[in-house]
Amino acid sequence: MSFDSVRQILGDHAYDSLIGKSEDTWLEAKGNNPYDFNTPTGRYELAKDVAAFANNAGGVIIVGLTTVPAAGAQTGEITAFDLCTSASFTTHQYESIIAEYIHPAIDGLDISWHPVSEDGTAGLGVIVVPPQNPDRQYFLIAKVVEAGTKLKEIVFGVVRRNDAANDSFTKDQLYRHMQDGKSTLAQKLDRMNEKLDALMVNSQHPFEEIDPELQYAARAAEILDENQQ
């Protein structure tokens, strides 16, 4: 399956065709109450599942399906409906938890409930995570420790010395620095470093004329370094 094919099934309301399908890169199936939002672990699990799709090529989480382990694979095969009610799948609660736990905000995130049963009282909860602009990745989980509970072994942070204090990066600062590391600015600085190396080599030969472009690159590098301090 593909992201578009999963979206097509949902758009055509062809929910029965989900039965027999296997989870894959673009699809994850969940039972009717997969996340206990009364616990830190439940809220974290939702954020983890959504962030994983946002950091890859997008995907769809469907709540209200039963799965069994697929033979010879680390995925599940959808075997039946395990429908949820609109009251148990509250879209605004899903939206608020994802907004609180994931940084930056996911573009185009769509959370909805689709009636499936004949009387319209039970259905599927659907979380659609569209493919994201690679320049905005990676999406961070803002809370991996909550109420004193360490949820997973992925806790990390950055601390910077500031005068006599040790200041930690906020999630916004950490994300910005991650983005700077893969921006075109970093590539430009690498090229400037190459030019500076060439300048140092030339400086060892005083009788050779120094390329004005190298002098300009050296000064530009100094200015960028001053601005980042």
Q: Which descriptors apply to this entry?
A:
229 residues; alpha+beta; Methyltransferase, Cobalt-precorrin-4 Transmethylase, Domain 2; 4-stranded mixed beta sheet; 6 helices; 36% helix; elongated
3D structure, described in words:
This protein is of the alpha+beta class and 229 residues long. The chain folds into 2 domains: 3-150, Methyltransferase, Cobalt-precorrin-4 Transmethylase, Domain 2; 159-228, no CATH class. It has helices at 3-11, 40-54, 91-101, 171-181, 184-203, 212-228; strands spanning 27-30, 59-63, 65-69, 76-81, 102-103, 110-115, 123-129, 140-141, 145-146, 149-150, 159-162, 165-168. The strands form 5 sheets. Strands 1-2-7-6 form a 4-stranded mixed beta sheet, with helices on both faces. Strands 3-4 form a two-stranded antiparallel ribbon. Strands 5-8 form a two-stranded antiparallel ribbon. A hairpin with a 2-residue loop joins strand 11 (159-162) and strand 12 (165-168). The radius of gyration is 25 Å and the shape is elongated. 21% of the residues are buried. Residues 155-161 have low confidence and may be disordered.
